[in-house]
Amino acid sequence: FEDRAAQSLLNKLIRSNLVNNTNQVEVLQRDPNSPLYSVKTFEELRLKPQLLQGVYGMGFNRPSKIQENALPMMLAEPPQNLIAQSQSGTGKTAAFVLAMLSHVNPTNKWTQCLCISPTYELALQTGKVVEQMGRFYPEVKLAYAVRGNKMERGSKIQEQIVIGTPGTVLDWFLKLKLMDPKKIRVFVLDEADVMIATQGHQDQSIRIQRMLPKDCQMLLFSATFEDSVWKFAERIVPDPNVIKLKREEETLDTIKQYYVLCNNKEDKFSALCNIYGAITIAQAMIFCHTRKIASWLAGQMSKEGHQVALLSGEMVIEQRAAVIERFREGKEKVLITTNVCARGIDVEQVSVVINFDLPLDKDGNPDNETYLHRIGRTGRFGKRGLAINMVDSDHSMDVLKAIEKHFNKKILKLDTDDLDEIEKIAN
Ligand SMILES: Nc1ncnc2c1ncn2[C@@H]1O[C@H](COP(=O)(O)OP(=O)(O)OP(=O)(O)O)[C@@H](O)[C@H]1O
What are the Helicase C-terminal domain coordinates in residue numbering (predicted)? Predict the structure, then answer.
C-alpha cells in the first residue's frame, strides 16, 4: 500500500501539466433520458467570479477532457452523484475542488464539504489545490483532519471545507464531535484505488458515508478501476453517474532507442560522460538496478560537476517528495533512481532516459512493461524522446534482444567513443 500512495504522491509532484489523452470519454448517466451536458469553456459553468478568477489564475484556459463532462454534472442543481475514473494527471482533483468551492456557503461557519484521502501527504496536496483555486475567495476556509492536528473535544470547526484521512475524520465526527455529519453537503472520496489498498480505510470510509445525509452529494475518484474498486465505489456512491477515460497506450514510436556496449560499471560511467560531453541534455532520468549502484553513480556524476538528484528506496516519503519537486523545478538536471523506487512514476517531461541497468522483473527476466513505461510516450503530441541502454554482459545483451523482439522496434548500437556519432543521435 505504502507504495501506491507514495507513487500517487510522487506522480502529482513530478507533473506540472495535464497529461495527453486522446481517448474518448465514456459517460454513463444515471438517468439516460436527461440531456448530456458538456462544456468547452469555464464561462459556461456560471462560476462565481472569484472562482473563475481562481481557475484562470492557475493557468487553466479550458476544461480538461474529463472536466468537460464532470463539471456540469457536479455543478448541476439538484446535485448529482458521480464516480469518475481516469489516470493520474487528467484533472480530477481540480474538478472536485472546483465543485466543493462552488457549493460552499461562506456565511455559514460550519463544515459543508468533506474530502477524504488515503494519506496525510495526499490530503495536504489536495488542500494546496483548494488554497490556490480559492485564492480570490478568502471567506472560504479550509481545515485538515489529519494526524497531528490536535483539536479540543467539543469545540466546533468553523471551516467550510475539511480535507482529511478516514481515521481522523471519524474521530472528528464521533469522538471529538467537531463537525456535524448531517450538515455535510458534498462528500468526496479521492484515490479510491489507493484507499481500499489500506487495511481499515475501506470500512472507515463506509462508516463516514453512512453518517451523511441522504441528499449529500457523493463523489468518488479513482485512477484505476479494478472490480474491487468498482464494488467499493457502488457502496459509497448511490445512484451514480459514471465517467471513464481509458488510460492512453504508451508507444515507442516517437523514441530513438540505442544501446552501448560496456564491460563494467566504470565503463558505463565513462560512456555516460562521453554522451554528456557530446550532446546537450536538458534533463535526464537514469535507472539503476540497485541502491548501491545508484548512489555510486550519483557520487561519480557529482564529482564531474553534474547537478544530480538521487531517489532512493530508504528515503522517507517527505525526502522523496522533496527530491522530485527540486527535479521538476529544474534545480537538478539528472535524476538517478532505482527500478523499484521509480516504478509507476510518469516521467513524460524528461526527454532523455538512460537505463544504466536494464529493467528486470523479480525473477530476473526482461521487464518489458517497465521498459515501455520508462521510455514510452503517450499520445500523438508526445515529444520525441531518446533512450540509451547500457549493456555490460551477455545476459544484459540477451535482455536487450528480448525487449527489442517484444516491441519489434530496432534498438541501434551506439559507439560512445565516436563523438560525431553521438552528436548525430541528438538531431
Ligand atoms: N483545465 C485545466 N487546464 C490546464 N491544466 C489543468 C487543468 N486541470 C488541471 N490542470 C493541471 O493538470 C495537472 C493534473 O491535474 P489534477 O491534479 O487535477 O489531475 P488528477 O487527475 O487529479 O491527477 P492526480 O490524481 O495525479 O492529482 C495539475 O498540475 C493541474 O494543475
Answer: 254-422
